[in-house]
Amino acid sequence: MTGAEDGLPKVVSRQEWLAARRALLANEKELTRRRDALNAERRRLPMVEVDKPYVFEGPNGRESLLELFDGRRQLIVYHFMFDPDDPPPGKSGAPWTEGCPGCSHIADNLPHLAHLHARDTSLVMVSRAPYAKIAPFKARMGWTIPWVSSFGSDFNYDFHVTMDPARGSTEWNFHDVAELRDAGKVPDIRGELPGLSVFLRHNWSIYHSYSTFARGLDPLLNTYNLLDLTPFGRQEAWEDTPAGWPKSKEFWLRHHDRYDERPEDKAACCHEQRKAG
Fold it and tell me: Which residue segment(s) compose the domain that 147 sits in?
């Protein structure tokens, strides 16, 4: 009979399974109620008016932040890590020569935008890389999600997804980036990092209502949500799983067209040095 000693869940009778499942269900329902309460709290966050005239470049040419709403009242921006510069010495791959694999994983998990549009909400991805660099990578990935460049503007710095002390951007996930680097949660005090920001439009005025980073982006990832339902979970080193369960020692996510490559062919990932938390 298989069990924990074989790297598998314990095998029990149907009655024992039902008792354990009902106990877990009580915890799941409590989490659902807590999530509903947290969402209600989030809806009551105050807002900050956005008065800087940000300009973006995309397939329609130059656009303002107001135009990114596309006539809708709410706008969700995913800050996609894609650096405008060439790789620094000793570095290669993402996020310089192609978009970040972790951010690409999020893009792969985003819904059909018609569902958001039905709730008067637009979604746009924004990167600091020039649009000429974004467009071929977007075509390679097969995405139809609107994606524009903030190159030349303060947008990424002001919303804390491009770190640069010289530009006054030294905070990510509401913590000092130097402290996060020293804790191993970010690779450097300069460069691109992921995040999500939410904006509300009232007439011609725009307000910033919410931003989230790091594990705050987990709800976007249905790949993870599905894996979390399985016995082996995400199979990542930080997870609390019994001894013998399969785990990856290295960052495993790749671009969806790269899973057939050998591990040693994988480009270094910009998310790889960040730890769970």
Answer: 50-220
